[in-house]
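Section: Multi-chain targets

For targets with more than one molecule, the full set of components is provided together so that the structure can be written out for the assembly as a whole rather than chain by chain. Components appear in the order listed by the source. The example entry contains two components.
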Amino acid sequence: MRILLTGGAGFIGSHLADELLNQGNEVVIFDNLSLGRMSNIETALKNPNCKFIKGDILNKEELFSVFADNNFDVVFHMAANSDIAKSHANPDVDFGNTLTTTYNVLLGMKEYGVKSIVFASTSAIYGDAGVSVDEDFGPLFPISHYGASKLASEAFISSFCENYGIKAWITRFPNVVGERATHGAIYDFINKLKKNPNELEVLGDGTQIKPYLYVKDLVEAIITVWKNTNEQVNYFNIGVESRTTVKEMAEMVIEEMKLPATIRYTGGNKGWVGDVPQFSYSLDKIHNLGWSAKVSSNEAVRKSIQYILEQDLCKQL
Amino acid sequence: MRILLTGGAGFIGSHLADELLNQGNEVVIFDNLSLGRMSNIETALKNPNCKFIKGDILNKEELFSVFADNNFDVVFHMAANSDIAKSHANPDVDFGNTLTTTYNVLLGMKEYGVKSIVFASTSAIYGDAGVSVDEDFGPLFPISHYGASKLASEAFISSFCENYGIKAWITRFPNVVGERATHGAIYDFINKLKKNPNELEVLGDGTQIKPYLYVKDLVEAIITVWKNTNEQVNYFNIGVESRTTVKEMAEMVIEEMKLPATIRYTGGNKGWVGDVPQFSYSLDKIHNLGWSAKVSSNEAVRKSIQYILEQDLCKQL
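Its structure, encoded as tokens over all components, is:
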């Protein structure tokens, strides 16, 4: 298969690149390197089936020229703003980088006759829906601009499928952690502890509980969905049954850093505006495909902490 | 109340203007007159509480200056592309005029501290969901770009509510007919019969069945929802229990035009790509508020036919 992988130098995208190449596909990575890093795709680029193009999806001319030069079978569209809290102050971040990017990719597919899209969606489309949310949950009232932009993206993917005979594989992720992650609560905790090794300030009351999915499990799940379903619009929650509280995460960071820090909670059940305090998915649909996560939420968090600390150590050497 | 009414010179917007003025509100109509007409607001503009500003919501500077010059209590956002079939060839029509307009209005509200929005949404967000669809239906996979743009608009309304303490009243309409309508199947049938009074070509097999809501009933319902609900995001289907088939509509047009035409169906269960062949809402939620439509679907369609034919007669005189 000849694949366009947007955001392929990013955290999730680069792991996906590795796996798609492993499986013998040709992969063109298109990334503006705003969140992505060349170091993430060092290994991938050693494969002759991998090509990197630096470019911005919001520049339609740049994007369309990539479509024109390649005869893609499928687009894996991973490019997006991935920092949910960021767009509270400036919603344009998500309207542009999360929604309009998707829309432009769809326009490119329409224009150049590409008939398959695999899309990175999110649990954030469900808003503050609570627990055991299945794929057919409604109403859909996202509380972050990121969630709104991903729901809006799904909506256009759906209308493009109907209008132009496209097929879609929509995979909805929870928090994802692991090697190459670029930001998030774990990063914030480590950075805070570097400044003050005696006290860790944690937003909220520590009871927020969410599933943290290991990035390599996620990649396996995305490919499983793509290979094993064949409706016009295929849509799946991807996740892990276990969950981790913010308190557990904070304690693991302190433990791994071997610090004597105490935790101070700012209080309230939300870390920030748009945060979803309690969340769990129903994963029956993806489990019925024969896939389930191998790494637990706590293990995934710990792997991520260890990776970041090792990276720091490497920098110091 | 000081109200910004976008799309206020349009079909539905102008009826809303009349009623909001009747109820003693101050109304600033903002409309680019692409689909709206000055003749629709002739009566409204005789009211000293009504002001018209010609401008384009996609021009943020123009829009923001209206926010800056007025201290609005609430925005009734009715501006949109209303021709669903049109954007099959060019999805930008809906991405711009239906979605980006909403997004810009929300940015204006954020910037100028307006805390209430009443929004014209649509049954098209439910896609080809079938019958008795209630407000909490999922999954939401619209099949037209219009439906996608309205769902995307709802998504951003929801995230703006959470992020900036805004309240929203989302009202979802089916097909709406009545005085001042500018296009749609009734128009198409009349125009076809003017060209060929002996035969009426009808897209599909005539069995498509939908509720057609009378515009004055709709306006009453929108105001009922706005005045009688007070959640952060209030959302209601608005409709009429009865429905009309395309066959009935075609027969009524022929009857009202007093023509000897026979009907020729092109076949298939969809009139055009993105058309939803069979649709009905659950209206329990709005009925529980004490509102129900006074005019049946067939009566509403007939009123609409008679209005268009009278307008034609007036033009000839």
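The CA atoms of residues 78 and 246 of chain A lie 26 Å apart.
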